Amino acid sequence: MSTSTAGEASASARRAHVVRTVLAVLVIAPLSISAFYMWALWNPGDTLNRLPVAIVNSDVGTNVDGTHIQAGNDVVAALVQGHDVNWKVVTPDQARQGVDDGTYYFSVVIPETFSADIASAASGNGHKAQLDVVYNDYNSLVATPVGQSVVAQVRSAVSESIGEQSVDQVLIGLGDLGKGMGEAATGAQQLSAGTKEAKTGTDQLYAGSKELSSGLGDANRGGKELAAGAGELATGADQAAAGSGELSSGLNQLVGGTDQLGDGARQISEVVDMVTGPVLSIIGEDGDIASQLVQLRDGARELARQLTDPTADYRGGLLAATAGAAELNTGLGQLSQGAHQLSAGANELSSGLGQLDAGGIQLRNGLGELSTGMGQLDSGSTELATGLTDGATKVPQFTDDQRTTTAQLLSSPVAVDQKVDYPAAGFGPGAVPAVMSVLLFLVGILIWFVVRPRRGRPRRVHEEVVREGLRRYRVPALVTLVAALVASAVSLVVADADPPSALAMTAVMILIGAAAVASGRQYTVVFGAVNGTFVALGALMIQIFAFGGVYPIEQMPAPLQWIHSLMPLTWAHNAIRMVLVGSYGPRFWIALASLVGLVVVAVASTIGWRRQQLDVALTGGDA
Question: Which percentage of the chain shows pLDDT scores above 90?
């Protein structure tokens, strides 16, 4: 009776202990998980720059108007300097291999035609430049959404620097500019034709100015000679006027003397008539004497007539000579006055011709410079017309549709081609490494809470402790084996995983299940069935944050990064993801060796712990 009462009391105490433990866990566990979650993922945006991401620049560049541009280099430089993530500039092969084996969370590839695609925007028939992004959900369930956010920021930074409306206005301006340049080119061509004609006329003017300058030089010299001759003429005219005055005066004196001679001749003629008249009347006019007397009488009369009769040749000639001399004197006076005026005019003409000669030289030189300038203007206007014509042909002339298309293209010139290898969405293959790792460890932990080993002490304590310890793994191991097989089948059928070797994947999952069972048993042996289960679940929770299958380990706090490589869940995740892609490198074998070591160490330490506890009297509870 007392034994039964003691057993009931012990069972009641155990139930009370379990209840208290469960209640404590239900209260403390959510708070602990919330606090741990907040600590692990506090402001994850500040840690994005730790994520290793591959970037490949395959852009070969293009030539635009004789200038080689390589926009890919600028994009890579801007991204690397931006430190949004930890960009690693690698080759295409390194990027593919790195994304497959988990070295990089995703890769961004700038294709060969990147610069050419950007330059095509000005053609009116362009197409967007493209960034090729490859994600791999095997690496982390969160890395792909984070990467998509980063790529969206990258695309936004490259593509949306200007708005579509602004670009549309720029394109309208470019069209107007092209038309204006075309009109300007036409005007420049007309200007060029006009300057050619102007240069031809200027050359003719220059040639004429040289002839004019030469003629003005000759005229200047002739003017100087004319001035000198006019001066001499004026001097001669003065002398002639003076001589004609003397001649006129002498002729006047001769007329006076002639008048006196005429009076005397008339008196002599009268005396001769008085003398010869009677004689001839007596002797008659015949005979030598009479003839001589007649001649004397007639001679005296003729002399008197010539000296006094204005109609007589002498008297008329003398009067005419006197009048002519007077007129000559007057004319020579006028000639002298005119000669002086001519001399003065010739001097002025000479001075004016000298000025004209100097002006003609200046005109010739100026027209020479003008001809040279017109030649330069002609050359410049020709170059201007050629440049404007070439420029007008290079400025795009867009239709409305082309302008709209190009505006949209320039407002968002970069497209992103995103490819997710092994996507996790909808329980795709990308979810297998993380989900199955956690699931198998969860099964390995909970199986010891559900399946209790048979209590009691082995009959041969020290001899059969190992066999007894191993025997206790039979049911949990079998359940976990079934769980591993089911997980493999679900991965292949439901998640559509396509590993190079399904057998290798199944073997890895069985190994993970064994490690989970071994470590779960160790927790229950050390801490008890209930407490050990909750401690194991707590450890699993920590590993979920730090094993890298859900959250990138680079975003975790430093303590979790330090223990990341020591966590069984990390080994399980690495083993599954490597076997799924057929990457059997060092990480795969290290993960397998670690899992095998975990099984061996956990089983050995559990049996060793049990051996120590068998010397203690056990009265109740799980063993």
Answer: 13
Which of 62, 66, 125 is CA-nearest to residue 390? 66
52 three-state secondary structure? strand
The residues facing 87 across adjacent strands are: 53
- Asked whether the predicted pLDDT for residue 466 surpasses 90, the reply is no
Mean pLDDT over 319-330 rounds to 76
Condensed to tens digits (0 to 9), the pLDDT of residues 359-408 reads 767 776 776 777 677 677 667 667 766 766 666 565 556 566 666 666 66
Which CATH topology does 45-160+413-421 take?
Answer: abc type-2 transporter like fold (3.40.1710)
Residue-wise DSSP of 419-453? EEES--TTT-GGGHHHHHHHHHHHHHHHHHHHSPP
Q: What is the pLDDT of residue 310?
A: 80
**Per-residue tokens: 448:** 């010891």
Report the C-alpha gap between 57 and 49 in whole angstroms. 20
The pTM of the whole model exceeds 0.85: no
Residue type, 73: N
Residue in the structure block whose two tokens are 């095509």: 120
From the list 68, 100, 21, the residue with the least C-alpha distance to 588 is: 100
Exposed / middle / buried, residue 426 (Cβ in 10 Å: 0-12, 13-18, 19+): exposed
- In terms of Cα–Cα distance, which of 170, 163, 157, 102 is closest to 135? 102
Mean per-residue pLDDT for 531-554?
81
pLDDT value, residue 512: 94
Per the prediction, the chain carries an average pLDDT of: 75
Q: Mind giving me the DSSP string for 55-123?
A: EEE----EEETTEEE-HHHHHHHHHHHHTSSEEEE--HHHHHHHHHHTSSSEEEEE-TTHHHHHHGGGG
Residue with tokens 């012990």: 10
Taking alpha carbons only, the member of 431, 537, 574, 554 closest to residue 41 is: 554
CB-based contact 556:545 (threshold 8 Å):
yes
- In what helix (H) or strand (E) does residue 543 lie, and over which residues does it extend? helix 529-546
Report the first-to-last Cα separation within the chain, whole angstroms.
Answer: 26
**Selection from 70, 37, 120 nearest residue 413 by Cα:** 120
Indicate the helix (H) or strand (E) that contains 131.
strand 129-136
Rounded to an integer, what distance in angstroms lies between the CA atom of residue 400 and that of residue 603?
A: 78
- Which residues have CB under 8 Å from 447's CB, separation 6+? 475, 476, 479, 480, 517, 520
Cβ neighbours of residue 21 under 8 Å, at least 6 residues apart? 530, 531, 534
Amino acid at 334: Q
Sequence-ordered list of residues with C-beta below 8 angstroms from that of 553, at least 6 positions apart, any chain: 546, 547, 560, 561, 564
CA gap 328, 345 in Å, rounded: 24
Confidence band of 75 (pLDDT split at 50, 70, 90): confident
Residue indicated by tokens 């020709």: 382
Helix (H, G, I), strand (E, B) or coil at 598: helix
For 420-452, what is each residue's pLDDT tens digit? 888 877 788 888 888 999 999 999 988 887 776
At the second CATH level, the architecture of 171-392 is Orthogonal Bundle (1.10)
Cα-Cα-Cα-Cα torsion 292, 298, 301, 306, nearest 10 degrees, comes to -110
